[in-house]
Specification:
Blueprint lengths: L7 H15 L1 H41 L1 H15 L23
Helix pairs in contact: 2-3
Protein name: Sec-independent protein translocase protein TatA
Main location: membrane
InterPro entries: TatA/B/E, TatA/E
Length: 103
Amino acid sequence: MGFGGISIWQLLIILVIIVLLFGTKRLRNIGTDLGSAIRGFRSSLKDGEADAAEDATFAAEARKDPAVANNQTTAGQSAAVQPTAEAKPASTTTQNTSGSDKV
C-alpha cells in the first residue's frame, strides 16, 4: 500500500496521463511559475519580518527616549498641517459675451 490506499503503479499511471494531457513544456512552465510565486512569497515574508523588527526597535527606543517619538510625530504632523494657498475671490460681476441676452 502506498499513499492512503493508492499504490505506486497507480500514481505512475496518473502521472503519465497528466503528461499526455498537458505536455512537458506546459508542465515545465507551470512548475517555473509556481516556483517563482513561492520565492516571491518567501521574500515578502522576510521583508515583513525585517519591517516588524525595525518597528520593534523604534518602539524600544521610544520607550527609552520619549523625545524620539515626539520628533517623529511632530514632523509628520507639521507636514500634514501646512497652510494652503488662499483662493482668490470670485468676480462679482459677470459679463455676457454671447449677446443673446437683451434687456
